[in-house]
Amino acid sequence: MYKRGDEKIIMGYTSGVYDLFHVGHLNLLKNAKGLCDKLIVGVTSDELVSYKNKKAVIPHNERMEIVRNIRYVDAVVPQNDMDKFKMWERLKFDVMFVGDDWFETEKWKDLDLKFRSVGVKIIYFPYTKGVSSTTINKTLKDLRG
C-alpha cells in the first residue's frame, strides 16, 4: 500500500485481550500509532483467552467494539490463534508492537528472527507501571468480597 507518489504506508499490528480497558492499553495503542500510518489491532477471542485458564470479563465482541472506537486504531481483527506469523501472512504488516515482558524470551527471539527475514520490525514497549486488567479484576473482587 502506498501514499502519494511512491511513499510506502507503514502498517502496524499489535494484539491483546483488552479486557477491562485501562490507561496501559491506551498508552500502547497511542504509542504504536505514533510509529505507523495504519494500526491494526488483534483482539484475543474468548476461546483463546481460556487456553491460559483465564476468562475475560468483557465478551469478545464488546472488547472488539471498544478497541475499534479508540481513535488511534484503524482496524480491528479477531485473534483466534497465538501464531503471530500466521497473522502476518494474512495482514502483511511492516511492524509489530508488543510488551517488553516478551523481550529476550526464547519464543520471541525465534519470532524476531523469523519476522526479520520478511522485513518486519518488532518494537517492544514498556508496560505502564501499576496497572493491568489482572490487578483491576483482583481489586474489584477484594472490594466486593
Which key phrases capture this entry?
5-stranded parallel beta sheet, 6 helices, alpha/beta, 145 residues, single chain
Task: Report what the structure shows.
The chain has 145 residues and is α/β, with parallel strands linked by helices. Helix content is 39%, strand content 19%. The protein contains 6 helices and 5 strands. The protein has helices at residues 23-33, 46-50, 60-68, 84-91, 106-117, 133-144; strands spanning 11-16, 38-44, 75-79, 95-99, 121-125. A 5-stranded parallel β-sheet has the order 3-2-1-4-5, with helices on both faces. The mean pLDDT is 86.
Please describe the topology of this protein.
Blueprint: E1 11-16, H1 23-33, E2 38-44, H2 46-50, H3 60-68, E3 75-79, H4 84-91, E4 95-99, H5 106-117, E5 121-125, H6 133-144
Parallel strand pairs: 1-2, 1-4, 2-3, 4-5
